[in-house]
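subagent[fold] <- orchestrator: predict structure for attached chain, return tokens only, no commentary.
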Amino acid sequence: MLTAKQLRQKYLDFFKGKNHAIIPSAPLVPENDPTTLFTGSGMQPMIAYLMGENHPLGKRIADSQKSFRSGDIEDVGDNRHTTFFEMLGNWSLGDYFKQEQISWMFEFLTKEIGLDPKNLYVTAFRGDESLNIPRDDESVSIWKKIFKGVGIEALDVDLAEKNGMQDGRIFYYPVEKNWWSRAGVPANMPIGEPGGPDSEMFWDFGAGRGIHENSDWKDEPCHVNCDCGRFMEIGNNVFMEYLKTENGFEFLKQKNVDFGGGLERILAALNNNPDIFLTDIFEKAKVEIEKLSGKKYEDNKEAFRVILDHLRAAMFLIGDGVFPGNKDQGYFVRRLIRRAVRFAHKLGVQNNFCGDVAKIFISDYKSEYANLETDQEKIVAELLKEENKFRETLEKGLRIFDKAIATTWDDLDKPWDENMQTWDARKLTGKLVFDLYSTYGFPKELIIEEANKRNIVISNKALEEFQEEVKRHQDLSRTASEGKFKGGLADHSEKTTQFHTIAHLMLAGLRKVLGENVHQKGSNINGERIRFDFSHPDKMTEEQKKAVEDFVNEAIESKTEVVMEEMSPEEAKNAGAEGEFGHKYGDLVKVYSIGNYSKEICGGPHIKNTSEIKERFRIKKEESSSSGVRRIKAVVE
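subagent[fold] -> orchestrator:
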């Protein structure tokens, strides 16, 4: 079987042979996409080019993109979910379309890496009259001819979710399954968001593999999109040609292809085993955890999978500058580390171990992501610090737990009977269980375990209350997140584009007033305001804020042209362009200059002249964001 390193290289070499420029992975924290906390797909860093801006390296691009999806944290533990993954990607930015993309992917999967086409199944868009978008019969026709070319009669069928496989190989599904945009289904897409129908590819591990015989699935119709475990999606060909407008969906000015294939999942298909944790990516780290715990992976799969995934993800996030904290991206790094420690505790690991596991991953990935080796000391130190902090929190949580139990005991009308099978739990409520979970990091399983040690069985009612609290918390978090990250540069509206250009001027002003230690650490820009994070240790004075305001407003009033030039990263650095130079850039970058005010590497979009801004810039708030990072909220009015 191919290793992850070999598969990644074969993919990039294959598309290089198809005249694609190979670019490095973008960071896990989006630079010009405030709609989300993390880079969760290969598409996100490409959004400006999918919308029509010219890419400095041309119309054919390929890469392996680091990706992180925070919403999958609680799903990790089965054989296929991870929070961090690599997305193999190729793009046509107004160049080739369905015929070439489908043919090339079939060629890569079956000829280049040797997957048996008999185990490949595909899906296509069913069409939606309410959107005025037709069924994707073109993709189906292309797939049928390709399968026929290797001796496979590919029957296309509909309504597989109701009627099962029906001897089909190509299946039509609705927008919920075969549509792709960053916001999900069309109903959730904001105005100005691009998207389109897709054709997904699945690997059949065969009846008897995965979890499809589980009681939750045994009575359901078998089909490729049922998530039962028999089939696994390994790649998605998105035909991004639509833009959501106030009048419905219209065509983008160019037809794009956006392919995303999970590196880990394709490896699982090559291994013909649905457990992605049995690929070479996790092997050395898995052996280390077995040594530390004295337990075997086969007997403790959930705990091993959580530890392996979460520490790999935390390592990459810290390597991209995200440290454990209580809000935004830092919250998820903290959560990953603490969840890994909890599951290690379950395996009997008592000593600090996160750094040892991270070093193994760093060694395996350093040839592709050189910053991991450069920053190894910092990564290991942050893991150790958070691990120690969490162990202290666990001890405090146990004291709270024992105090709650003691209080409950005193309130009982009769002494505890060890023969009782249930516990009244008048004070040990689902709310208390949730507080231990949310505040002190106790998983439900650990709370039950600690209760059992004290001869207490938590009632089903308390556990139901706990689940209700978890769901309520998740709903509140999701609502807050949607409100916080709604809109942004993706809409390419006039006002948002103005704010984006102003952000360049503001950064230049901050560097002039505060010093060259200032660099951008994140932004959230929409049509109403700028939220901008930057490196600086101290609170800004009123005089400093006014000096930055004056700098920006002077640039606005100067009616200066915004000029874009393409050059190598080295040339950009020598020209004094602002940007964190290193592994993140390709052979060419775009440098935007605003007279003598600002020169910065960026992917756009920008206004043509500062005269387009008719109002005055003002800083409304300046505050701490995290250690060594400040945050500005600014408007024009």
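orchestrator: received. Logging for downstream: Residues 409-426, 480-490 have pLDDT under 50 and may be disordered. Residues 318 and 379 are 6 Å apart (CA to CA).
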